[in-house]
């Protein structure tokens, strides 16, 4: 499973790319839920997202890679 941190390109770029390329779930912190649900283009990703309580919990779910997209 992958984990993505970053609410910009991390969500609209890396999240769908990881799901499309690897067909695996992606862990995201619960704090990203509202952002993801507000973006219609990410609706198809929702079944592949595993929500974690926070960043530490999302990181603990990653067994393949972590993608950090931020300034």
Structural class based on helices, strands and sheet pairing: alpha/beta
How large is the count of helical segments? 3
β-sheet strand percentage: 15-25%
The pLDDT mean sits at 92
Uncertain stretches of 5 or more adjacent residues? none
Q: How large is the radius of gyration?
A: 11 Å
Task: State the helicity in percent bands.
Answer: 25-40%
Gross geometry: globular
Total number of β-strand segments?
Answer: 4
Distance between the termini: 24 Å
Strand order of the largest sheet: 3-2-1-4
Order of helices and strands: EHEHEHE
Total domains: 1
Largest sheet: 4 strands, parallel
Using brief descriptors, characterize the structure shown.
71 residues, four-stranded parallel β-sheet
Would you give an account of this structure?
The protein has 71 residues and is α/β, with parallel strands linked by helices. 37% of the residues lie in helices and 23% in strands. Strands 3-2-1-4 form a four-stranded parallel sheet. Strand 2, helix 2 and strand 3 form a beta-alpha-beta unit. The longest helix is centred in the N-terminal third of the chain and has 14 residues, at 9-22.
